[in-house]
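Lab notebook, bench 4. Still working through the backlog of constructs that have no structural model yet. Next entry is a single chain of 299 residues. Request: give me the structure tokens for it.
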Amino acid sequence: MVRGMCWDRAQRCASKQACSGWAWLVAVAACAIIEAACSHRSSTGQPARDLILATTTSTQDSGLLSVLLPLFERSHTIRVKRIAVGTGEALQMGARGDADVLLVHSRRDEDDFMARGLGSLRLDVMYNDFVLVGPDADPAGVRGQSVLPAFARVAQTQSLFVSRGDRSGTSQKERELWRAAEMDVDGKPWHLSTGQGMAETLRVASEKQAYTLVDRGTWLPLHASVQLVILCEADERLRNPYGVIVVNAKKFPAVHAQAAESFARWLVSSEAQEQIGKFGVDRFGQPLFVPDARPGGGP
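Model written out:
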């Protein structure tokens, strides 16, 4: 009974009636507290085992985890402890054996992680896309351009750009785009790094009326809180795939391999994929993420 009440409250936190803008983050944090208080036992009544999930901040800030995790915990004797950091730090946690399972979005780094034997299983889960946002005045004149000419124009005009500047998937994508546009931004006074998550980076970009790169899953819940607009989107280079990785228990015996694999395979199940596909539609008129699991659960 209590467990069901807690789940209902967590769902309402992420619903369209909850809040908008920065208050969305407060609601998401409240959901995490509710889940922690309610997940000591599964629906079977058995004590829950702990599973450490290291994940990117976009899955946390968007509110997606507050929908998915209670569903998983209700049907498994597993309690998921989330640690939301940049993708780079999540992969580092996995490389140290400090997490059981990873949900990240930097395919090149994920493939390297697997090639080094640090992961035992990787599955495609979902994708969304990045968008280039900036002030409506658009001082660099990039509105409507494809992404590489837009990035080049920002550099050529030395228009202010705010970067996360961390090892996140978003930061890695941004650096990839600068390289592809043949622009060197290191040390440039117009290229600022926050070293913070996406929500804080968006806030700084808004305050400074600067450009920044953001994933759509984070942008949609927060866009009403900032004085920025989408200037570049719908470019194939901006695709943003997410994968789940089970950390290799043969390298790290403390890893809860069975529980981690159960969670990974649940994420690509029809139940989870349906939830991913409809998440955000009631509030934003479009999903924040697109389900991307392959039939048979291939990598």
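Notes after review: The chain has a mean pLDDT of 87. The radius of gyration is 19 Å. Flag for follow-up if needed.
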